[in-house]
Design brief:
single chain, binds guanosine-5',3'-tetraphosphate, 529 residues, 28% helix, alpha+beta, 3 domains, Rossmann fold, Alpha-Beta Plaits
Length: 529
């Protein structure tokens, strides 16, 4: 391995900010970009966000998603560290996109609203992080609002997110009386002032919070802080980077993204402790980022719905070695050599052509239909990356062809759109029925629109009352076959021809799991161990 490659890799941190919608992800992203000098004023990345008002109009959402392609990956430098911040769509209907993006990062920052605590989308996202053992830093946001007790919030994090936490800063009151945070790591007091643009703030070193000088700064709140800190030090073990790096312990910060308060501490700690690009698993072996030969995989495909620009961008995470523009690489699934004339990297609002990319980087490749989610590129090795699973959809509908003359077009359209990752396709094992599964209603509109415009096909969707999809397996082939025969109507195949059981309700699922102890029911298409 060349020392150039080594130094490029150790310079990089690739991560995502995740949250339930409205917790403050966009605001925090923006503050990070301000620190990185990638934007000059607050408000510049707002267009990145899918506006709530647009929730019923998918073309408007697509238009906004078009804008957000430019900010899918935001690359900036901060204190000589090259940060690749991957954007995740806040809109719930695009949750699958977010889950897949998490396969391309090495760590995450999870934003929690201090008033609302852990919300549903947060739990789901954390489940994906836990599965992959992704290191997580928590930022509890909006301390300028009257929020919940910090101890209660930390307990809720541990309980609902099933991860141990360790506060590294501590809030002093909240809402109108919010005084600031005390940094437990370097014993500094950071006094709150409401200023959205301020970048540097003065810190006060208070080596021993027992000293009366604390009263000078925070008056009557000093007593409470002393009590809280004593309790924190008593309850939580000292922070250790190792369990954090293994995804077992999440350091927690408090602040207010809107007021740019507590954000610098978060970013400074992030660049100090967050992992460098880490390896990825393939069916045959683990690929290390420092390997000389280039490898990478596609985790997201963005299709432009504008009929005048019907291009697709496939997003590739570089896993090892060096990617080069115009060099031939091996497309493993197609067993074909491809080269890329215009690979792009993204910086705030603009795209740039790149010549090289290194492990940890995410680049956009213009695609004319060669890529599927999960595809690997290499310098010749037949690598099949694993760890890019599908999750059970929440809404299921049967596809009904509206135009029998166009069945071929419909078949092709459904096939290609689901390969892009727009929705999941399940085909009945012992029949011809096709079901589409999604996380949100919006995708059905998108599918109908695209079928019509790109494939001249049309279909209806019939709602199905399925509760979830379970990927099934068994050590006994005979038992699995017997189960499939008994439940014939509910057995379907996913895109990779894996067996899936569609359960009609939680009750049915529980009873079925109970009645068939030899069958394993899994809620993701792939199990990362
Ligand atoms: P998201 O990307 O996670 O969905 O959240 P976003 O950053 O858009 O923030 C959601 C709302 O919360 C925004 O208000 C934002 O200004 C506000 N917010 C973010 N951080 C803080 C904070 O530290 N304190 C307070 N009080 N509010 C915060 P909005 O009214 O929905 O949008 P906007 O009109 O301000 O853009």
């Amino acid at each position: 391995m060349s020392s150039k490659l080594q130094s490029e890799i150790s310079k990089r941190r690739t991560f995502a900010i995740i949250s339930h919608p409205d917790a403050g992800k966009t605001t925090l992203t923006e503050k990070f970009l301000l620190y990185g000098g990638a934007i000059q004023t607050a408000g510049a990345v707002k267009s990145n966000k899918i506006k709530k008002t647009a929730s019923s109009d998918f073309m408007e959402i697509e238009r906004q998603r078009g804008i957000s392609v430019a900010t899918s990956v935001m690359t900036f430098e901060y204190q000589n560290v090259l940060i690749n911040l991957l954007d995740t769509p806040g809109h719930k209907d695009f949750a699958e996109d977010t889950y897949r993006t998490l396969t391309a990062v090495d760590s995450v920052i999870l934003v929690i609203d201090c008033v609302k605590g852990v919300e549903t989308q947060t739990e789901k996202l954390m489940e994906v992080c836990r599965m992959r053992k992704t290191p997580v830093i928590v930022f509890i946001n909006k301390l300028d609002r009257p929020g919940r007790d910090p101890f209660e919030l930390l307990d809720e994090l541990e309980e609902k997110l099933k991860i141990k936490v360790r506060p590294l800063s501590w809030p002093i009151s909240n809402g109108d009386t919010f005084q600031g945070v005390y940094n437990l790591y370097d014993s500094q007091l950071n006094l709150f002032e409401s200023d959205k643009q301020k970048i540097e703030r003065e810190k006060i070193l208070i080596k021993d919070i027992k000293q009366p000088e604390l009263e000078q700064y925070i008056g009557k709140y000093a007593g409470q802080l002393r009590e809280d800190v004593e309790l924190v030090e008593g309850v939580y073990e000292a922070f250790d980077e190792n369990p954090y790096k293994h995804g077992d312990l999440a350091p927690v910060f408090f602040g207010s993204a809107l007021n740019n308060f507590g954000v610098k501490e978060l970013l400074d700690t992030f660049i100090r402790i967050a992992p460098h690009p880490v390896g990825r698993k393939s069916e045959t072996r683990e690929i290390k980022p420092t390997e000389k030969a280039f490898t990478g995989f596609i985790f997201k495909i963005h299709a432009n719905l504008d009929p005048n620009h019907r291009d697709r961008i496939a997003f590739l995470r570089v896993c090892s070695g060096e990617f080069e523009r115009n060099k031939f690489f091996h497309h493993v699934r197609l067993d074909k050599k491809l080269k890329f004339a215009n690979p792009a990297s993204f910086m705030a609002q603009s795209k740039q052509m790149i010549e090289h990319a290194y492990a940890g980087d995410v680049i956009g490749l213009y695609d004319t239909g060669n890529f599927k989610i999960g595809d690997g590129l290499s310098e010749g090795e037949k690598i099949h990356f694993i760890g890019i699973p599908s999750f059970s959809p929440e809404i299921f509908k049967e596809v009904v062809n509206k135009d029998p003359m166009k069945s071929k077009q419909l078949e092709k359209g459904i096939q290609q759109l689901t390969e892009e990752g727009l929705a999941q396709l399940f085909t009945q094992r012992s029949g011809n029925k096709k079901y589409i599964g999604t996380v949100g209603e919006l995708q059905f509109e998108v599918i109908q629109y695209r079928l019509k415009n790109e494939y001249s096909a049309s279909c209806d969707f019939h709602g199905m009352n399925f509760y979830c999809a379970c990927w099934i397996s068994s050590t006994s082939k005979a038992k699995l076959e017997e189960f499939c025969r008994h439940k014939e109507q509910f057995i379907v195949l996913d895109k990779q021809k894996k067996l899936v059981f569609l359960a009609q309700s939680k009750g049915v699922l529980d009873i079925t799991m109970n009645n068939y102890p030899d069958i394993e029911f899994r809620f993701t298409s792939e199990f990362v161990v």
